[in-house]
Amino acid sequence: MSKLLRNFLRKKTLQNATLFNAYDDETSSYTDMEGSVYGALPVDSPTAYDSEPIKDFRLVFEGENKDTFVLVPGLLPYDTIEIPLFGTIADYWGDVKEQIEDPCITSPSPFGSLHDRAVELYYQIKGGQVDYGLIHSHQFCHNQLGQTYEGLVPNWSPDNPIVLIGYGATTALYLQHLLSTNFFGQHTAGKMIKGVVCWSAPHRGSTLPYYLGLEPGSKCIVHPFSILQFLLSLIHLICYFTFLERLFDFRLNDKWGLAPKSEGGEQSLWGALSARSRFSYFGDNFLVDWSVEGARMRYAGDEKDRHYLDPHCVYLNYVSTGRTWRSKVTGYYWPRLSWRTFSTWFISVMLGRYKLPTDAEQQVLRTSSSTFWQNDGTLSIHAQNPPPHQQVLMNIALDQKLFDPIEHEITPGVWYNLYVNDPSQTVLFNGVPFFITLPFIEYILNRSFIKHFVNFLSRNSESFESFYIHFVEFCERNIRFSSKKLHIEYDNGLGFSDPSSKSYITSATSERIVKYSSDKAGLEWIHKVETIEILNSPSKMLYWMNQMQSSLDNGSSLSESGNKKEFSGYSLPATSFMPGPMFIKAKRRLTADDYKATLMNCN
């Protein structure tokens, strides 16, 4: 009996040692129950990796050495929507699939927390049974183990890295954070991810959850009479009726037991209607990570929870701009007249004017609410900027596909921040309206009178938008007159003009749209790409030579204008096309070698 008792106590002691202070002979370090290495070197520490210098490299889309691309969806994703007789009418990844052949498409829980989504993403790529971690599952009171996956890339390793692309960029970055801290206990590293390509990512959180009903400062308390409460009730009802859960595949029943008790769950019908569950109350869901407070925890929290950039990984952040305009009367942002904004019109209007109470601004936003007003229809432009503790190498106003860094050699370990006004200028995210794939819609659009009408709208789109802007501002002025507050200037620190001013009558549409420009490093990048393009293209080189030669023959001169050179009415980049004395003194026709020599001397 005493021997049995000693063995039992010894077994419990060993279990506790394994859970809280496990020693790894190979790494010579202690790990916790989730596999995180205590005292592990930070991701951005150069001594954490080999001593070889890290060179610029590019992502490979074709050929034998093509990179493995994994697509990561964001909130409320779908794969494809098909209708019998009509075929596919919507494809979540339609634009990306046009550029990448056979990408690996993942599907983590659409309403899970960043931690749970990142863990599911890892096992969907690598394979195996999902393990959310013992500490994490105990802390938030859900099951530790989840579904089992075969693995999209079973040979995934530091020697065979992948590229993560998508709208769920924060999930991809959190996965890299877990890899860098060896959370999975399989000798992982951050360099298992070669690149992270983000589109409209909520790096700094969103104010939309607060408008929908999330109590500021609470992280997970939702107002009982709000849109967000209705959404949570809808999620619980779908999970309660398992046939609907199989249809929508929210991946919540395995963790939270939201199914009815008769089917092995823990939920009652009243609990589903009122959204009373651990999923709603314990903060391990999309609400926390979607909010500004949750985002700040990823860059201003404890050192061990802070996300760092990996020096072996390239980072591209596409910021969607130009979809809203700012009123000169109130300072609010309104959506533009574009098909890209129609589906998110209501959200865009609400984001463009939502103001938190002063106390919430100081404690939650730590800035003015107007900072988050400019948006792309679903997310603030400010929120799409990378976290402040991560280095941004350059900001590029992307107006041509040629300047998209995804097709060039780029520096790893830093952000390339790309301001995109027109998604068609990007290589990957040049989506089109999904409904044009319907046969009867295509038939209608091909009718001659419809084409004439569409051409009429496109030719006069600027006039229509100008009329729309003046009409909205006219209504705002009349509302101010009726409320007898014209003498009070709108106080939000943005410096708007006097409401009684009549300058709005002649102002252009473009004056109300915030335009982003490239910084110094971004301009140098653009000029470098232009120079390389000219040198590698004989036809373009001869074109510019002929333009310069004909202008010089006609007696034209060069004059500086800002960062560009004016040459016969054509603006040339200052760093790429600065003709030397040879162009002025030459008496003969210039050759390609002459042009190349002059260009290299200028650089």
From TrEMBL:
UniProt-listed Gene3D superfamilies: alpha/beta hydrolase
GO biological process assignments: lipid metabolic process
GO molecular-function term, one example from the UniProt record: hydrolase activity
Keyword Lipid metabolism: yes
Source superkingdom: Eukaryota
Keyword vocabulary terms for this entry: Hydrolase, Lipid metabolism, Secreted, Signal
Subcellular location: Secreted
Pfam family, one: Lip_C
GO CC list: extracellular region
Domain Lipase-like C-terminal: 65-171
PANTHER family hit by this protein: ALPHA/BETA-HYDROLASES SUPERFAMILY PROTEIN, ALPHA_BETA-HYDROLASES SUPERFAMILY PROTEIN
Protein name per UniProt: 4976_t:CDS:1
